[in-house]
Amino acid sequence: MNPPTAGSLTVINPNVSPIATIDNPVPAALYPANPIFNVVSIPMDRRRRNAYMQNFNLQWSRQLTNNDVMEAGWVGSKGTHVDTSLQNFNQPDPGPGAIQPRRPYPQYARIRMIAPDTNTIYHSLQTRYEHRFSHGLSLTAAYTWSHLIDDAGETINRGGCACQNPRNRGSAERASSILDQRHRLVVGYIWEVPVAGGLRSAAGAILGGWQLGGIITVASGFPFNITQSGDSQNNDGLWERPDLVPGQSVAIPDPGPSLWFNTAAFQRSVLHYGNSPRNPLVGPGTNAWDLSASKSFAIPRFESQRLMFRSEFFNAFNTPQFANPGASLGTGTFGRVTSTALPNRQIQMALKYMF
């Protein structure tokens, strides 16, 4: 068996006269007198508080014409006692020396503790414009500016706190959420093309009656956290953050897949907590155009029967929708985008017979 890592337990079953057998696979004699285990715990005060949400909004709407409506509003919410978990509540503060004796509870290894104490706050400006179907066009556009702030990376079932120091949450972890999308514009439309609409010839049958539609999505990216590989803080930390380099900006003028942020702005934190804030950067945004075209053909001599052709183009212009870059200092992908968040262009066609 490989040598143990900090806080782990090595159990060796002898090859000659083994203690553990098929009939008795987990005998007490196989374990040390005082084994050190990872544990999962409820909060120290044994109180599991129920989360609750407070929602508030103020809306304004106006009909501009018979076919045009405009809406705008402020929408907000506040979450209190939201569930998360501290993945390593028993990690010691950074420093030299063996890790296990420095833990707050040295008789245990890692302690994952339920923590129903996360707070969230969300504010947004939400606007909507609708052009009801007239002159062959129906259109809806919605724009949202929003800001979501929290003090934990994820909820309990999606990964936990992601905090550098589990015993110092507060201002050290309060930041824009990884779900904070500052700008989002979505436009959807349907247009009945008037070309050759009045023709009775074969050309009119082919060129007329087409319906075009689409959904356009333009949005800013999501924040992401910067961590560091290894354990240079020497505290068995799971979410160690680096230090900021004085005089260096984390952003660069023209970010791209080969370099999304200034990697020289971060340096490894050694034997102390890093001073880089949580989620200091924002990843690539979205610019996706989904288009569709359809036409219904009447079948000669069978007026009650029709044939419908429909084609759909997802990410029609094949624009790369990049995912967040590598964000772990000390890895080969640090600062580089290596994947996409959405698929490349996809085309599907369908033919439907109605009778």
- Report on the biggest sheet: 11 strands, mixed
Q: How many β-strands, per DSSP? A: 17
Radius of gyration: 29 Å
Overall spatial form: elongated
* Poorly predicted runs: 1-7
Succession of helices and strands: EEEEEHEEHEEEEEEEEEE
| Strand coverage percent | 35-45%
Mean pLDDT: 90
What is the overall number of helices? 2
Kindly state the percentage of residues in helix: under 10%
What is the distance, rounded to the nearest whole angstrom, between the alpha carbons of the first and last residues? 70 Å
Instruction: Indicate how many domains the architecture comprises.
Output: 1
Overall SS class: mainly beta
Describe this structure in a few short sentences.
The chain has 355 residues and is an all-beta fold. The protein contains two helices and 17 strands. The strands form four sheets. Strands 1, 2, 3, 4, 5, 6, 7, 8, 14, 15 and 17 form an eleven-stranded mixed beta sheet that branches. Strands 9-13 form a two-stranded antiparallel sheet. Strands 10-16 form a two-stranded parallel ribbon.
